[in-house]
Amino acid sequence: MKMRLAFMIVALIFISCAHRELQLPESPPLSSTFSKVNIIRENQFFGFGFALEVIFDDAVICKLRAGEYITFLVHPGFHNLGLSESTITVPFTPNRKYYFLIKTIPNHFGFEIERIDNGIGNYLISNSKVFE
After folding, report:
1. pTM for the full predicted model
2. How many domains does the chain have?
3. By three-state DSSP, how is residue 124 classified?
């Protein structure tokens, strides 16, 4: 029994360290107006061992681990953003920064994404590490 538990722990560690690919949406040219999107995953113990798929306009763009964030540029307009089980539609306006937080839902043992205030977003990014 102990051997089986040790094997499961080692397997979980290897799975959590698997290579993650970044597939961001095509960025607009720098001369155009754009929206800057910042997605932060809170640094909580729950779900710490695996990465969550982040979806933008129905495509997986990355897998964030606890305490990581990603920043990218998008064309203004309505876009879908979220996780496989929780997405939101957001109207992005030109030349603005947007911050979103992926947080745990303790009552349901799951995750959700929500838009957060820019000040809180800047603070959380300063205490997080960039997606690699």
Report:
1. 0.73
2. 1
3. helix
